[in-house]
Amino acid sequence: MRRKRIKQVNRDARMSFRIITGIFLCLVLAGALLLMLPFSSREFEWTNFTDALFTAISASCVTGLIVKDTATYWSEFGQAVIILLIQIGGMGVITIGIAIMKASGKKISLGHRSLMMNSISAHRVGGMVSLVKFIIRGSLIIELIGALLFMTVFCRDFGFKGIWYSVFHSISAFCNAGFDLMGVREPFSSLTSYSADVIINTGIMLLIIIGGIGFMTWGDVRDFKYHIRRYSMQSKIILVTSFFLILIPAVYFYFTEYTSLPTGERVLNSLFQSVTTRTAGFNTSDLTKMSDSGITVMIILMLIGGSPGSTAGGMKTTTFAVLFLSAIAVFGRRNDVNCFGRRISHEAIRNAGAVLFMYFTLFIAGGIAISTIEHLPILTCLFETSSAVGTVGLTLGITSGLSVASKVILMALMFFGRVGGLTLIYAAVPSGEMQQIRYPLEKVTVG
Fold first, then answer.
1. DSSP string for residues in 355-372
2. pLDDT per residue as tens digits for the range 356-398
3. Residue boundaries of the structural domains of the chain
C-alpha cells in the first residue's frame, strides 16, 4: 500500500512538472507570434521567427538578453507584449492562472493547489489560494511604488513618456528581467547615464532584492515581521546568504573596479553591480572595461542567482548555501549538515549537488560551443552563457551578432535556467521503481 502511494505521489509530481513546462512553452510561443507581427516593430515590418522567439524567451524567462534593441526596434505594442511576458514569467504562469480562475469564480482543486506548490517551491499544499492573493497583491503594490519613485526622475527627463518608462522599468526590475528602454545612445547603455542617480540606483536595487528573495520568504516576513527567529530555516538561509552575496562582491568591486570614480558614485556602482549580477541584468557601467577577474566574479554571481520560488533564476542561493554548509560539515568531520539549530536532509544535499553539476555542465559546454562557432574569446562566451542559464541578461556586447546556432544555444539555456533543472529532469525522466535492494557497500576515495 505504501509503495503504491509513493508511486502515485511521484506520478502526480511528474505530471505537475510537465504541466508547468508545457504552459511555459505555450507562453513563449504565444509571445513569439505576437512579436513577429508588423505592428510590434517601429518600422511596421515582420520580425523573423528566430529573433521574435529569442526575445519572447528572454522576456518570459526574465533574462534580459536581446537581439533587437527594446527602445528603438519594438513599437509601444511590442514593448507592451515584452513587459507582459516579463510580468507573467516573473510571478509565474501558474500563479497568474490560479488568480484568474479565482477571480472568475472557478473552484481551485487540490490538483491546482499541488501545481502551485511545485511552481513556487512551497513545502505544503495548504494555504495556496491565500498565498496567490498575497503574491499578486504584493507584487502589484511594490511595482506601483517603484514606478511612482522612478517618475520623479523619468518624467523630468522624458516628459509624459516618463510614466511608461517608470512602469516598464519597475516591472522589469522587480521581476529581475533587466530589459530597459534607454536605447542605444551609447554602447551597452542600459542605465549607464544614471550611474550617479541615487533614486534610480536605490530603487532598482531594492526591487531586484525584494523580487529575488522568494515568495515564501515574503510570507515569513508578513507573518512574523521582525521576529526573525520564527522564520523558517529556508528563509533564514536565503536572507543571510543574500546579504553576504551582496556585501562581499560589492566590497571587491569597490576596491578593484571603480577606483577612478568619486566616493559616492563608487559606492553606488559597486553595490549596483553586486545586486544586478544576481539575475537582474541592468548595468550602470561599461562591462567591457572591467578586468578579467571582475568578469569572473560576475560569472560566479550570475550562476548562483536568486532564491527559490522568486522572480529570479540561477542555481539559487539555497543551493549555494547547502553546498557550502555541506563542505563545512566535511571539514569538521560531522555526519550531519546543520544550520540554525536544524538538520538539512540528505535529499536536499544530493539535489544541490545535482543542480550544481547541471548548471556548470551546461554553462561550460554552451560557452565552449559558442566560442568554437563564433571564434570568440572563451571568457566572453562563458559570460554570455552564465548570463543566459542564470537568467541575468548582462552581456559584453556579442548577443545581437551571434549566428542562429549560438542563439539557439542561449535560448535553450535561458529556458532551462528559468523553468529549473530539476523541473525539466523530473518532467522528462520517468521516476524509477522504489529501490528494494541495497548492494554491498564499498568505499571510494574522493579528493
1. HHHHHHHHHHHHHHHHHH
2. 998 999 999 999 999 999 999 999 999 999 999 998 988 888 9
3. 2-428
